[in-house]
Every structure is written in structure tokens, then in C-alpha cells.
């Protein structure tokens, strides 16, 4: 199996190391020998800590697709457009199997690429694109193939989980912790994709398609990142018995499919709340299997390269499935439910001036919107300065809560925009 590798960064270098270190193991497991015969990167002279001797260098990665010595193409560059997409299209059209770690590409163009793969009768594989080293794509596509899935959710971004747990454990500063995550090779080329929830949404869109047999529909994922999660929210969460995690949730209801990514309060005694650092976890619920949980490192050189190589091994051994578990013409377009329709409990933190009647005014708004309050506490007392009023609601439709928070924000005694975090029902 002669491999062409496009992209020699964190993941590409990891792949080269596995092929170098585990040549015999891979060959014993597949009956094939693996050799990287061609590579592409931006800089030809950069020292990558691995030998590129004997490999053909391409300045234009797309040329890997037409190299007659290349049997399989690994796209490890990234980005939903440009050279990454062009290379995948060219390789599939040339009848060459493609393995990619690129969730942005699959979230935006997944269905069209799957169609192209089917048309050319070649595999398109992407285990590394979702939850790093966890074999969740294989689990969803093959292990759970006998089930109707009702919900799949989890921690899908290692960078955000690393930031949230470091903030919780060390009280450290957001920017400094993000810099650590970048140095460790966890973050995307543009880290705003991580912290603004876009990367988790890319992965969720792929999981939704695998779970429910729908075309990949990234545009209808509701996305909210972690920038506004404050040390105060983390401390209040602890007090109420929760931790804050960025979750991606895809759920099938009678009305359609919910797809949302946002920070969540998760009860401390749940499996998800105990997933720390760069680890990811995915929970998939099927009608026959019930709840299944998968956990592992969600980013970084070794885990991601391990997932890339799992695809390479499957393809070399002739184990091939339709890209999203079913052929594209069997996919069903199921309506997506807007987040305003979401019904759940909410954590709300209000910043108000501590004057007589404030709580009465807040209560009146909640009464008018028929929102019932489970608990409420006020911290700090200073007539001149704003204090925090924190409350947990019973179940309510999100649209009603949003109306209530808009009315409260307009009060004279409001000092800042109310903050709301959804409470996960796990
Ligand atoms: N890092 C991780 O933990 C994970 C990453 N992924 C995905 O894997 C992919 C790669 O990520 P990662 O390795 O972290 O990214 P890096 O930024 O570390 O590496 C990207 C590589 O692509 C090369 N490159 C950029 N533009 C071009 C181009 N036009 N032509 C040829 N090569 C180019 C760069 O070259 P040069 O080195 O010369 O600049 C670099 O070697 C992305 O899709 C990412 O989302 C998925 C799961 C986990
Ligand atoms: N930037 C991603 C890499 C893994 O997909 C993360 O932090 O999870």
C-alpha cells in the first residue's frame, strides 16, 4: 500500500511515526506493507523531526492524486475549502481511497463527497475527524448498526474541555490556558473554531448523519462557544452540584432532530462531568443496546494519527462501508428543530443593583412567562454595586426564558446582560 500524505503537521507527522514504528504490526494485521511514497506541505525545508528521505515532495498537494505511485491519499491539511477539498475530489475521481481527519470539510461537503466516493466506488474514511482517538465513527456505523438511535451527545472538543477543566481546577486565565492547548497541538489552525464551538459543531453534524441517516447539515446546528463562561459561573456551578462542559447534542424527537452545541451544566455524578482535560466522551443511545459510552483523548498527535491509521488499516484489509453508514440515495432529510423550541432547566445569573423590590420585579417577569423557579440565591450586598442573583429554573421552553431575560435586561436595576447556561438532562 503506497501512501501519499498531504499535510505534515501534528497529525501528518504522527502518521509517519506510526508507519515507521509499527510496520510489522500493520503488515501482520493486514497482509500488506505500508510505505509513504509521497508527501506535501507548505514548507519544504521545515524540520519536522521525521525523515522524508525517499519520498517524492509535491508543492501542490493536489498532484498527489495523479501520482501513479500513490495508491491511497491521506488529507491532513485541514479547512473546508481550497486545497484540502480539491485534493479529496481529485483523489476520489482518480479512483483512489481517501482518508481524512478534516471535520470541517466533511461537515460542509460530506454528502457531496460521499456521493463522489460511491460514484467512483472508492472509500472515503474519516475516523480521526470526530473525537480524536475514540473509534466513534466505527462504533456508530458498524457497532450500533442494528439500532435506531434516539440521541448521541458528548464532549467533542479537546481544547474546550482542556480550558474548562483547567479553569475549574487551577482558576487559570482563559488566554494562557488556550495558549497551552495550542502548544500541545490540540487546537485548530484558527483556535476560534475551538472556543466558539464551531469545531464541535462540525463533529456533531457528522455524528448526526451517522446516527439518523440524514444528509450532513452543518448549517442547522445551533452553536454557542465557551468564551462567556466565567470563573463566577464555574464557582456557582460547583455550589449547585454541577460542572460546566461544552456539549454537542443530537436528539431525535417526533418533531425532527435537535442539533446543538453549547456550554452545559452537567451533574457532578455523571460520566460526562468526570471527563477532564483533552479527553472527549460520546454517549450513544440505541433502542436495543440502550446507552453506550466511549471515552479517550480527543486531540493531539498520537491519538489522532492512531485514528487515521485505523482507517488506513481497514481499507488495506478490504473492510469498507458507505461513508455515513448508508448509501447517499437512502439518506432521509429530517426537519431540524430550532433551539427556541428546546425544553429544559436553566441556570441564570443576573447582575443587578441591590435595591428593594428587585427580586419582586424579577419574580413577576418569571411569573408572567410561566417560568417556575427551583432555587434562587443572592451573593453580595452593596447598595452601590451590582450583585449576582443566581437561579435555577424548572423545565421551560427556551423561547419563554429568552423573553424573560430580555425584559429583565431592560430593568433600571440591571447592571449587565443576564447570563444563561442550559442544564443537561443526562
Ligand atoms: N491536531 C489535532 O489534534 C487534530 C487535528 N485534526 C484535523 O487534522 C487536520 C490537520 O490538523 P493538524 O495536523 O493539527 O494541523 P497542522 O496545522 O499542525 O498541520 C497542517 C499541515 O498542513 C500543511 N499545509 C497547509 N496548507 C497546505 C497546502 N496548501 N498544501 C500542502 N500542505 C499544506 C502544513 O504545512 P507546513 O507544515 O509546511 O506549514 C502543515 O504541515 C485538520 O483537518 C484538523 O482539523 C483532527 C483531529 C485532531
Ligand atoms: N481542535 C480539535 C482537534 C480534535 O478534533 C479539538 O481540540 O478537539
Automatic annotation (TrEMBL):
SUPFAM superfamilies: ACT-like (SSF55021), Glyceraldehyde-3-phosphate dehydrogenase-like, C-terminal domain (SSF55347), NAD(P)-binding Rossmann-fold domains (SSF51735). It holds the Pfam family ACT. InterPro entries: ACT-like_dom_sf, ACT_dom, Asp/hSer_DH_NAD-bd, HDH, HDH_cat, HDH_CS, NAD(P)-bd_dom_sf. Transmembrane segments: none annotated. Gene3D superfamilies: 3.30.70.260, Dihydrodipicolinate Reductase, domain 2, NAD(P)-binding Rossmann-like Domain. Residues 347-423 form the ACT domain. It is an enzyme of class 1 (oxidoreductase). Keywords: Amino-acid biosynthesis, Methionine biosynthesis, NADP, Oxidoreductase, Threonine biosynthesis. Pathway: Amino-acid biosynthesis; L-methionine biosynthesis via de novo pathway; L-homoserine from L-aspartate: step 3/3; Amino-acid biosynthesis; L-threonine biosynthesis; L-threonine from L-aspartate: step 3/5. It comes from the Bacteria. Its EC number is 1.1.1.3. Belongs to the homoserine dehydrogenase family. This is Homoserine dehydrogenase. It comes from Sneathiella chinensis.
Amino acid at each position: 500500500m503506497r501512501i501519499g500524505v498531504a499535510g505534515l503537521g501534528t497529525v501528518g507527522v504522527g502518521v509517519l511515526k506510526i508507519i515507521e514504528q509499527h510496520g510489522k504490526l500493520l503488515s501482520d494485521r493486514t497482509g500488506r506493507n505500508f510505505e509513504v511514497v509521497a508527501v506535501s506541505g507548505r514548507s519544504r525545508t521545515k524540520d519536522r523531526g521525521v525523515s522524508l528521505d525517499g519520498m517524492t515532495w509535491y508543492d501542490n498537494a493536489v498532484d498527489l492524486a495523479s501520482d501513479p505511485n500513490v495508491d491511497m491519499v491521506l488529507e491532513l491539511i485541514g479547512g473546508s475549502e481550497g486545497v484540502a477539498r480539491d485534493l479529496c475530489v481529485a483523489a476520489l475521481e482518480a479512483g483512489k481511497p481517501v482518508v481524512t481527519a478534516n471535520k470541517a470539510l466533511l461537515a460542509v461537503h460530506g454528502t457531496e463527497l460521499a456521493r463522489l466516493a460511491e460514484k467512483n466506488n472508492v472509500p472515503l474514511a474519516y475516523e480521526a475527524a470526530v473525537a480524536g482517538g475514540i473509534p466513534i465513527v466505527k462504533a456508530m456505523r458498524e457497532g450500533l448498526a442494528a439500532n435506531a438511535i434516539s440521541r448521541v451527545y458528548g464532549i467533542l472538543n479537546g481544547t474546550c474541555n482542556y480550558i474548562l477543566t483547567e479553569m475549574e481546577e487551577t482558576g487559570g486565565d482563559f488566554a494562557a490556558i488556550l495558549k497551552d492547548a495550542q502548544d500541545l497541538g490540540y487546537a485548530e489552525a484558527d483556535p476560534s473554531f475551538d472556543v466558539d464551538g464551531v469545531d464541535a459543531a462540525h463533529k456533531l453534524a457528522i455524528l448526526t448523519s451517522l446516527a439518523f441517516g440524514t444528509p450532513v447539515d452543518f448549517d442547522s446546528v445551533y452553536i454557542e462557544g465557551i468564551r462567556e463562561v466565567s470563573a463566577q459561573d464555574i464557582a456557582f456551578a460547583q455550589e449547585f452540584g454541577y460542572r460546566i462542559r461544552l456539549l454537542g447534542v443530537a436528539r431525535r424527537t417526533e418533531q425532527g432532530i435537535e442539533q446543538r452545541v453549547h456550554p452545559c451544566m452537567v451533574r457532578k455524578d455523571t460520566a460526562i462531568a468526570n471527563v477532564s482535560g483533552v479527553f472527549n466522551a460520546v454517549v450513544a443511545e440505541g433502542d436495543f443496546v440502550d446507552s453506550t459510552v466511549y471515552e479517550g483523548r480527543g486531540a493531539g498527535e498520537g491519538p489522532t494519527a492512531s485514528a487515521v491509521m485505523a482507517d488506513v488499516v481497514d481499507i488495506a484489509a478490504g473492510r469498507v462501508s458507505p461513508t455515513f453508514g448508508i448509501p447517499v440515495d437512502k439518506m432521509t432529510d429530517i426537519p431540524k428543530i430550532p433551539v427556541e423550541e428546546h425544553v429544559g432547566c436553566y441556570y441564570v445569573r443576573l447582575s443587578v443593583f441591590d435595591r428593594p423590590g428587585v427580586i419582586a420585579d424579577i419574580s413577576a417577569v418569571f411569573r408572567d412567562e410561566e417560568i417556575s423557579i427551583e432555587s434562587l440565591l443572592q451573593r453580595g450586598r452593596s447598595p452601590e454595586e451590582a450583585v449576582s442573583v443566581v437561579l435555577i429554573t424548572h423545565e421551560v421552553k427556551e423561547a419563554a426564558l429568552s423573553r424573560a431575560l430580555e425584559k429583565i435586561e431592560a430593568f433600571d436595576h440591571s447592571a449587565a446582560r443576564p447570563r444563561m447556561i442550559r442544564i443537561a438532562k443526562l
